[in-house]
Amino acid sequence: MSHASIVFSVLAIPFIAGCSLLTPVPEQDPPQTYYHAPVVDAASGTPVSLPQLAERLADQDVVVIGEYHGHQGAHLLQSRLQAHLYRHRPDQVLTMEQFDVDQQPVLDQYLNGEIGEEELIADAGAWPNYQHAYRPLVEFARHRNLPVIAANAPAGIVRCVGRNGTDYLDSLPEEHKRFLPESPFAGNEAYREKFLGVMGGRHGSADDERMQNTYNAQLLRDNTMASRILEARESHPGHQVIHLTGTFHSEERLGTVASLLQREPGLSVTVISPVFMGQPAGQHGRELPVANNRRKGDYLYFLLPLPEEYRDEERGREAMMEQFRNAPKTTCK
After folding, report:
1. For residue 301, with 0-12 CB atoms within 10 Å meaning exposed, 13-18 middle and 19 or more buried, which class applies?
2. Each residue of 69-100: pLDDT tens digit?
3. Strand partners, 226
4. How far apart are CA 73 and CA 27, in angstroms?
5. Are 44 and 55 in contact (CB under 8 A)?
6. Do the beta carbons of residue 42 and residue 294 sit within 8 Å?
7. Which strands, in side-by-side order, build the sheet including 62-67?
8. Do residues 65 and 202 lie in contact, with contact meaning Cβ atoms separated by under 8 Å?
């Protein structure tokens, strides 16, 4: 080997090593901190890095990222995936469960630089965790002039449907009805059984009227979000929609996703769903539980479970009642 070849080989070693260090490697181990969220292809069980995932999803019409509200790992994954998808498809729309459709004018004011962030939070009724959970996603879109769509049904209308039933919508003035989708209570039996199975165990019989009203309020949210996603696609042809929502609205392709596909069957939709590891922080060495969770999404991401909020049941009940007492007053008249 010539002297020049030896020198080149020596110089190339750190360059090659550096390239390998820059190449994203899928996380194969369970999450070790609350910011870790390894991703797996649900069908094959193989780990996927976020750049790889974004490349696979580049041609999808809608990417639905389910979340456990308030989990740092979920929100970090959403923000990182948003940026990776943008590299493949700069024509992007962000639709959010976290803002109600009637607050779109306030959201637009913020995106247009007419009001500040604290004004957005106060005037649009932003969720209490907006700044640490959703600010990164909204700011990514704002600085690139990307649309951000308020997708959820108006909270007051949802509460009144849950309280008074579906006939409540008939009493609404026309200016309020314009926020609602066609077929606001469309659903399917699989979703109904899942919802009533979960909520019935917490709040009484799945057969009582109150529980049926609660389910219909859930359907109103799902159908409103689905219609807003389709409106976003119509207003912004060729754009990829990234939709953020609580995982119950999307996992197993039920809820919002089912409504979306009922309304536009030819749509390509990918669902990314979170799974709790079921182990406390600090315990390592367990495999990612893919097999029992495959149905939840096309891709799964794994999170450490959140700490218990209350071990004193009475104190937990009192805290919940305090939240109800402090909830916005809705007259439903």
Report:
1. buried
2. 999 999 999 999 999 999 999 999 999 999 99
3. none
4. 13
5. no
6. yes
7. 47-48, 39-41, 299-303, 269-276, 62-67, 240-246, 92-100, 148-152
8. no
Q: Which domains does the chain show, CATH number per domain?
A: 22-326 (3.40.50.11550)
C-alpha–C-alpha distance, residues 19 and 58, integer Å: 24
What the block records as the tokens of 127 is: 């969720």
How does the average pLDDT of the chain come out, rounded?
Answer: 89
Identity of the residue numbered 263:
R
Instruction: Tell which residue, 210, 156, 213, 215, has the closest CA to residue 180.
Output: 156
Mean pLDDT of 227-234: 98
In terms of pLDDT, which residue wins out, 129 or 199?
A: 129
Above 80 in pLDDT, residue 321? no
Q: By the 8 A CB rule, do 153 and 228 touch?
A: no
On whether the CB atoms of residues 167 and 160 are closer than 8 A, the answer is: no
**CA–CA separation, 183 and 116 (whole Å):** 36
Cβ neighbours of residue 225 under 8 Å, at least 6 residues apart?
95, 97, 151, 152, 153, 243, 245, 249, 256, 259
Residue 281: closest CA among 47, 128, 72: 72
Nearest to 261 by CA among 301, 214, 222, 221: 222
Phi, psi at 41, each rounded to 5°: -70, 115
Q: Residues 122-139, buried b or exposed e (16+ Cβ, 10 A)?
A: eebbbbeebeebbbbbbe
The region, left, alpha or beta by phi > 0 then psi within -120 to 50, assigned to residue 165 is: left
Q: Under a CB-based contact definition with an 8 Å cutoff, are residues 168 and 160 in contact? A: yes
E strand or H helix at 175: helix 174-177
* Closest to 243 in 3D by CA, of 108, 140, 38, 93: 93
Q: What single letter denotes the amino acid at residue 50?
A: L
